[in-house]
Amino acid sequence: MTSLNTDVEYERITRILNSLVKHFLREPTNKTSGKDVKATDLTLRQQQTFDFCIRILGRYTECDLCPVPFTEHIYWPGDVFFYAHVRFSPIERAFAHRGLQDLSKSQEFERIKPTSEELKFERIKPTSEELKNRFIQNTLPIPTLSSKSSKEKESLPPKTILTKQLAILENNNEISEILLLRDIVFIFQGIDGQYIKYNKNSSYIIDPKAEISRSTRGILHRLTELGRLFRHVNDFVCTNVNDTSIGLVGQAFCYALQRELTEYYKFIAVLEAQVTKVTDSQQVEHSGLSLKRVLAWTQESLLNLRMMSELVDCCKQKRGGALVSTIYNYTNHGDPFIQQFINNMLEEVSRPFFEMLQRWVYGGELEDPFEEFFVACDPNVEEEDLWQSKYTIRPDMQPTFISPLLAKKIFAIGKSLNFIRYSCHDNDWVITNAGADKVLKYGDIIALECSIDATYTTTSQRLLNILFTKYKLKEHFTALKRYLLLGQGDFIQHLMAQLGPGLSKPANTLYRHNLTGTLESAIRASNAQYDDPDILRRLDVRLLEVSFGEAGWDVFSLDYHVDSPINTIFTPHAMQQYLKLFNFLWRLKRVEHDLSSAWRRNMTNARSLYQIEELKKDINTSRLVCSEMIHFTSQLQYYILFEVIECSWDELVKDYTKSGDLDSLIEAHNKYLKNITTKVFLDTSSNQSYHTRLLNIIQFIFQYKNGLDELHNFSLKEILRGDNANIERGQHKMIQERLTETAGLFKREVIGLLVALANHHDTDLRFLSVRLDFNEFYRKGLINL
Q: What is this structure's pTM?
């Protein structure tokens, strides 16, 4: 225990002396006593400081650091020696302990016979010259070299020799490079070393008490970065490699990191073998292994781990396609090494994604248990809504190397395959063209796009071919135009003629089976009987919800039944639009029918009605107003049936002929319906009052027609009464005022509509205003108003 305490004391004293020597060696050389002192010599103050250090630290028995005097053997130069009881300070013992001074070669003492006082441990006071060179002369190695080199060393100035000896002292105090190399190998594996520890701040700390030079500490700090990065990456892999919640792509990412770490382990194994070999031989200088060389060897591994650590930080919260996109973004880096590293990583990470993509494109199968693919499936959606609602795109899971157009094609391919299999019941074609021999993987994006384009074209054409041949899609388009948009004129005329008397009754007296029989009669009486039986079978009668006071005209409607797979194009919303168009056109047709009936009855009974002189003016006026209303209705029907429906139909035929897939076909049909509804209802974004004005005009026509019926019945009644000179003037005046008022309201609404249409930005609507007022009749009325 005493020996251990002594060694500790030596260490402490050595450090104190080290700092003191550094202090006085840094003092500049100055002029002393008017003499120039060389920069290589010790100044008087430096010598005094050094002497004071030696005197204070322990030549005396009173020194606390060394309370007990030491007796040593002193060896003199030559063959003669004797034992002298000399007391040595702890500093001298420290020097001797560190091997920096060979006391056996000391020349600080003269060969004299010790006196009795010396035997009492009295100090022999050295001369100033001896004190000056006390620790300098003896720092020279034992003269085993040539006399020339020995003389050169003896000729060195004292300050230079002391500085060199200080460097030797510091080097001997430093931890050996072998131990540091062993520590670094541990750090590279994420294990704490003897002098280097991992702290809570995710960094390595070098023991501040360790005797390591500043330059060596700098190298160690640079080397510990490799261990820190390794721990960061390895912790992520160990935490997530067996965690299924990160998904298949996340597990592939962990596997790719583990593969890179395996290569890193191989490098560590080679490095550890080299360090072990050097440790066993204890010859670092001759082995060529050093911290600087290890730093150079680890540069490639350091760059790899930096990239892996960066990817780990960026991809912690990412899954599926989003994770692949995050990694792919680093391929835009300008460093070829980083690009190659990321591409190698992506080949492994994107493998599950491309396997899901391959099943979706070539089989229509969506195997995505962890919702990592950019296509999502809702299993609760019925088969009828397969195309519209069952599959959706997840934009956040779409990789950045897949463009929006390519993603849309991929999405359409899978939907088409499932639509062919489940809605069109053509599973054989899907199995035959499954593309089992084709493999998709990360690499050549251009080749991937070419493969997707070819599959997209083949699948889309097959689907459209099935719809137009097996399911007669074109015939359904034509049937809807002919029957619900009143394109089949003879059928509509027969239907209206046969249904007219029954529809004039209250709505609650109608029965569907009676109306269905009338519909079949109208079909047999017109050219509709030559249509496909499957088309005619879908045509049916529909009664709308009945309200109090409504007539049969208000609730009657034709209906067209659609089923899978054509209901994908003719969606419920689209069929609702067809129903609204039919009701409006049917109402307009009824106006024309009623006005024609009123005009025909008026003409046939004109000679009888002219018998009453007071009614001639009213009858002539009603003819003019009725002709005005017929003109308005005829021109409006012509505009709707020819300039709107026929032109839109021509665009639809062109669009579905060149459509590439079912989505474009649906879009063309929706565009067709939108154009028709917008122009038929005069319902534009600039002014929503057009349709309201039009409905008001139609309502005034019905009121005027009812007034004409009252006038006609009143005339017949007066003729039958036989007193043509004395008619019921009160009732006549009431009918006359009602007709005049209704005609005025009709004309005012028409003028307002024409003015609005004339200023509209749409060319067709402006042209409609010209057709309705071709002779400027209403313009003159506007001036009069």
A: 0.70
